[in-house]
Amino acid sequence: MNWKTMMTATLLVVSLTACGTTNTKDAGTQEPASKYPEKPITVVAPSGAGGGWDKTARSLTKVLGATKLVDKTMTVENKPGGGGAVFLAAYATEDKNNPYKLFVSSPPILINNLKKEGNSPFGYKDTTPLAQLTKDYGAIAVSADSKYNDLKSLIDDIKADPTKLTFAGGSAPGSMDHLISILPAFKSGIDPKSVKYLSYDGGGEAIAALLGNNADAIGTDVSSLGSYLKAGKIKILAVTSTERLGGDFKDVPTLKELGIDAEFTIWRGVFGPKEMTKDELSYWDGKLKALSENEEWKKELQSNDWQSEYKNSADFASFLASQESVVKELLTALGMQK
């Protein structure tokens, strides 16, 4: 009996030890909980200072930090060149798995990839769309001392002699500011290729050109013009929204009001590298949704004349696919598609 008892006890101990060993091994093979982010994060504005991308990147990092939604240091870098195309080429190849570098963009990420001349081989599919945050509209503006007080007189002079007027914009030919600049002329029966367009590396430089009398008009996003309008430095002749905007822009007519059947919405969003992990994507899905609902962010939108338009990562990617078709149609109409 003693022998049998000892054998039973020994087998029981071996069995329990084996079970314990198996559980320990299984637990050890589980993926460790993600600690992302563990170091500072950079948000790139692919333009010079002063334009819509720059302002969006700075507002984004400011509010995420101030509200403690992100507890790591966030800094903004300006990477101008080619309306964002120069930055994206480097990002898509050198930072495709770097989750500590994000960037902001808008329709140029589609336009640069679809246009014929100076096009980029890279587009939104070489990134991970994280969220759309805002929507904005285009505007045609002139300096305060310009002889033009309405869009019709400007269009009439372009019709008479397109070579005598120059539009400035903060992005490359064929990109967003260029499309906004030529849109009213094109819809008024003018060959868009005849409209002179001078590109600068960012909205700030384009505005400086306008105020320095190096350009006759500017086509750009309306939100970047608010401070200049308040200061009495410019006149905005028209906006590309479907309805009149409020606040400081309440007296500015839409293109449709002026008999020009056109509109142009400027969305802005945040992008990450193509090879983000599920945990990294989930982190930003949560943080950017929380940002969109935060009161400090809503105040930031108001101060910059932006309208909230939040889409999460999945919805934003679907939206970009549909927008790609819209942009391709517009570029085709202008003879600029690749």
From TrEMBL:
Signal peptide: 1-20
CDD domains in UniProt: PBP2_Bug_TTT
Keywords in alphabetical order: Signal
Statement: the UniProt record of this protein carries the keyword GTP-binding: no
Family: Belongs to the UPF0065 (bug) family.
Protein name as annotated: Tripartite tricarboxylate transporter substrate-binding protein
Species assigned in the record: Cohnella silvisoli
